[in-house]
DNA sequence: ACAAATAATGACCAAGTGGTCATCAGGGAT
DNA sequence: ATCCCTGATGACCACTTGGTCATTATTTGT
């Protein structure tokens, strides 16, 4: 019976069992956002998430029932797009570019955009659904200020550009797009998005 | 008619052990290309590849030593880009768009482009390396016909556009970009690429 | 002070992974 | 025919995964 769980590693020998469901739940969600963005849905593991949150993987299951549920709870939809879109149409490309870069630059580490790109690779239903919902919402937002029957296509082409840029700069992190400054990126993106939107 | 021509009974009870290393090697490579494109590096499994190739997973290991080796052998670099690039610069965007769409449309199922996008999501060294090599080669090809100090950036922005489009149309397979015909896609892509390249 | 309620744990499970290896069998050379 | 090299197999290994559940420890109500 040497079932000693772990012979007191130097750090914390008497780690008292905390009892605080709300805090734990929040910690798990944060950890999940991080892990899912870092590895994508399929490759992120519940145990790793539990470790980051400082709890056991059993507790994660207790709170969220399944990996898919956790994913759905942790990864939010797109935020603040409406604010960016609102305004005069002429400068829309600049606002979109600036908004995108600002958002990604401050914390690409657990941005849903990155998460969904990484996750969609695995054909996981949950990820595809979230991605679809996100796209639908984007198109709807743009529709409030743009018109024309090919708005959808143009919005989609802009989204494609952003996906590609995100892929290179924030996922693969190599090449010219990853090397340039945020300002330069914004400038290039403004020009390209303008071309897509109004070209 | 009434007598069943039992050339191939539903299940093969006496599956004789074939001995044909070259054919098997080729079959494994084909199966690997397919599987890696379908699931990405991390999520593709050697056993599944073996199954598709009609051999045992032990044989796959025997031929390729490791999953990473198999990946490197199976996923080739970009082909035929030089031919597309060669020609008058004025119509480059159209040729690139048409070449891209033609290639993806005929067999996106095991295109290295899709494979690398799906694989890079998992931060796998082998995938990242292949992707980097592919990008380097692309830039080199374009450099033979274009000049200017921001060629690299423009090429990268075009690549980003193609990645985004590939992501929507051939990976997620949803939305306007997935719904339109190949011809329409080519037209849109021509316009957008032209804007990126010469805008 | 005690007991009921329940948050948290950790042992456990079946399934699946990449990788190893003793063994077997096909077929060319003799 | 026979031998023997080696292509091919499948049992096996250590490990990881998502998920379950009996136990244990901590609050809270009384």
Automatic annotation (TrEMBL), chains A, B:
Region: Disordered, residue numbers: 1-22
Domain HTH tetR-type as annotated: residue spans: 22-82
Gene3D superfamilies for the chain: Homeodomain-like, Tetracycline Repressor, domain 2
Membrane-spanning ranges: none
Claim: Membrane is one of the keywords in the record: no
Keyword check for Transmembrane: no
Keywords: DNA-binding
Family matches, as PROSITE patterns: HTH_TETR_2
Name of the protein described by the UniProt record: TetR/AcrR family transcriptional regulator
Organism: Nonomuraea aridisoli
